[in-house]
Write a structure and sequence with these properties.
With about 220 residues, this protein is an all-alpha fold. It has a single domain, classed as Arp2/3 complex 21 kDa subunit ARPC3. The longest helix has about 30 residues.
């Protein structure tokens, strides 16, 4: 019974990703907008910290999941839609805020990183069967989170602090404001997304993966 249930689950995940790959343009746009709404809702789950303008949120969880669920282009488009519509005034940035000023603020660089991370994660999910297992996916998500999100995030935070304070802020101080307080929470979110991804992504080719011949 367990073997049959596992086979049914594998077939269901394969069919879901195959369906996603074969969708028409209009439905892919709807999926991307739907995921952008999920990112917007995740932005409202926040825990402000009194010593930094960067709050703890669930956005990174939703962004990494967007890459897993929608793949490289449409995962990235979902984040781009979130950023673009929020900049246009839709109030779904953190704290139900909106406007282009938010992208120029202390957390704007992280949003740029969200886009890069979703593209990166989605690329590996779409192109490599081996990337869908737990350990490879964990490595991909760690890189996406701690490099692709934090590098632009910390650079813009550093620039913003220097402009707002009118005095030089060391990068060591920036790390205390925009990186160190978030490591533990990010690791929890990364392990959660890794578990989800390894469970729901098909372990066989669904759309001409680069390593499909080797896998066979």
């Amino acid at each position: 019974m367990e073997a049959k249930a596992l086979d049914r689950w594998r077939m269901a995940t394969y069919n879901a990703y195959r369906w996603r790959a074969e969708l028409g343009l209009a439905r892919k746009i709807l999926l991307a907008l739907g995921m952008a709404c999920v990112i917007g809702l995740a932005a409202q789950i926040r825990f402000p910290l009194p010593w930094t303008p960067v709050p703890i949120t669930m956005q990174t969880f939703a962004v990494l999941l967007a890459g897993v669920l929608l793949g490289r282009w449409w995962g990235g488009i979902s984040v781009a839609s979130y950023a673009g519509l929020g900049a246009a005034g839709l109030p779904w940035f953190t704290g139900w805020s909106g406007g282009v000023g938010h992208l120029a603020g202390p957390t704007g660089g992280y949003i740029i990183g969200f886009f890069l991370a979703a593209l990166f994660v989605g690329h590996f999910v779409d192109k490599y069967i081996r990337a869908r297992s737990f350990l490879p996916m964990l490595g991909i998500l760690l890189f996406a989170n701690f490099v692709l999100i934090y590098v632009p995030g910390l650079l813009q935070l550093h620039l913003w602090l220097n402009l707002v304070n009118g005095k030089s802020t060391s990068f060591y101080q920036v790390l205390h404001l925009g990186f160190y307080p978030f490591i533990a929470g990010d690791l929890i979110k990364i392990f959660a997304v890794t578990g989800i991804a390894s469970a729901i992504t098909p372990k066989q080719a669904f759309n001409r993966e680069a390593d499909s011949v080797k896998k066979l």
